From TrEMBL:
DNA-binding in keyword set: yes
Region Disordered: start-end pairs: 105-137
GO biological process: DNA replication
Protein name stated in the entry: Single-stranded DNA-binding protein
Record field: compositional bias (Pro residues): 112-122
GO molecular function: single-stranded DNA binding
């Protein structure tokens, strides 16, 4: 199987299921948008949709933390599945069997006004930096 690593946005709510043997598996879909600079402007040039499956304890843990529209980084194996449509034509779909899934932190909004630094406190609790007003000589 081919290895794959990518970053994408979860589309829809991840779904925790259990196999016939009682093993947990988490399924969700991601989209990775591609952008390219064309004539000096950034434009959307396509999207890669991927179905992802996570197994075991990681599936149960992630089910509690993943949500729609969240950005994740995924590393795993690309698995091809063949299936037949109702009209009899054969189709191939690809699924990512994730080994590692990481949650990408959301971007912080920049503050509208930078914080004003407060003066450092005098560690000795004295005025004039701990020195007398007049020189002692």
């Amino acid at each position: 199987m081919a290895q794959i690593s990518f970053q994408g946005r979860i589309i829809g709510q991840p779904e925790l299921k259990f196999s016939q043997a009682g093993k947990p598996l988490l399924r969700f879909r991601t989209v990775e948008n591609s952008h390219r600079q064309i004539d000096g402007e950034w434009k959307d040039v396509g999207a890669a949709w991927r179905d992802v499956t996570v197994f075991g304890k990681q599936a149960e843990h992630l089910a509690e933390h993943l949500a729609d529209k969240q950005i994740v980084a995924i590393s795993g194996r690309l698995d091809a599945r063949e299936w037949e449509k109702q009209d009899g034509t054969k189709q191939t779909s690809f699924e990512v069997l994730a080994d590692v899934v990481g949650i990408v932190p959301a971007r912080q909004q920049a503050p509208t006004q930078p914080p004003t630094p407060s003066p450092a406190p005098d560690p000795w609790g004295a005025q004039n930096g701990g020195f007398p007003e007049k020189a002692p000589f």
